[in-house]
Amino acid sequence: MTYGTEHVSVRFGNVQALDQVTVSTDAGTVTAVVGGDGAGKSTLLRTVVGRIAPAGGRVLAPPEQQIGYQPSVGGTWADLTVAQNLEFVGGTYGLQGSRLARRSEELIERAGLTAARDRLARDLSGGMRTKLGFCLAMVHEPTLLVLDEPSTGVDPVSRVELWRLLSEVAAAGTAVLLSTTYLDEAERASRVVVLKDGRTLLSGSPDEVIASSPGVVVRTDTAIRQGFAWRHADGFREWWPQVPDGQQPVQVDLEDVAIIASLIQHRSIE
Predict the structure, then answer these.
(1) 91-121, pLDDT tens digit by residue?
(2) How crowded is residue 179: how many other Cβ atoms within 10 Å of its Cβ?
(3) Which long-range contacts (CB under 8 A, 24 or more apart) does 115-123 make?
(4) Options 3.30.420.340, 3.40.50.300, 3.40.50.720, 3.60.10.10; which CATH number does 2-204 get?
(5) pLDDT tens readout for residues 74-93
(6) Are 55 and 9 within 8 A, CB to CB?
């Protein structure tokens, strides 16, 4: 089953938050929505889970009870322990008794929260709170799991652990749709959609998106084409329509391709 949106548009007054955006994720796969602040990531995910009604287009989603949603802010109850959070949220989905207890303990163990099961959520580290929020979104074994920037502000070790949990969930057949500001994370997904100003900039598998990038990128110590150069760990990277004389192209990654697409779009608008 495929979930997501087809040509969805969302307006807030005079602001066009989303403009004809299509995104999809299938059972057993992870789709990453990437973009900077104000790109429309949260609006898109909130539209998928039914928190926002679109002005146009179509939302493809299972019934609400089959959706797991972790918002970018909150998602846990500060004055409840880890175990109590799971009991409370599980109860809202109709889980009871031994079934709820087994499911809670399973998630606590998988998330590495066993030692913190009786700790208040407000006393958890950022990474542990994120993993608890993930468990709350998963407690009822949803068909579609939607996560809004789950790894933002999380330490590198917790990010790795979170992606391990995501991989396990997808392998079990859940469709996963998440947003992230980290392009290296998006490269792990089956499909990626890059948003800018509420519009789709790039879409496809990471390999397809990288392969579709026009021109070449070279490394340089001094940027020549100021409008098409950006800082990189080894100096500058610079985009050219064709290989410049005396230069050797470098292999691009998803971050490079997203930057190139944004620069080309900006120049075409100007």
Answers:
(1) 999 999 999 999 999 999 999 999 999 999 9
(2) 25
(3) 116/82, 117/81, 117/82, 117/83, 118/81, 118/82, 118/83, 119/81, 119/82, 120/78, 120/79, 120/80, 120/81, 121/76, 121/77, 121/78, 121/79, 121/80, 121/81, 121/82, 121/85, 122/78, 122/79
(4) 3.40.50.300
(5) 789 999 999 999 999 999 99
(6) yes
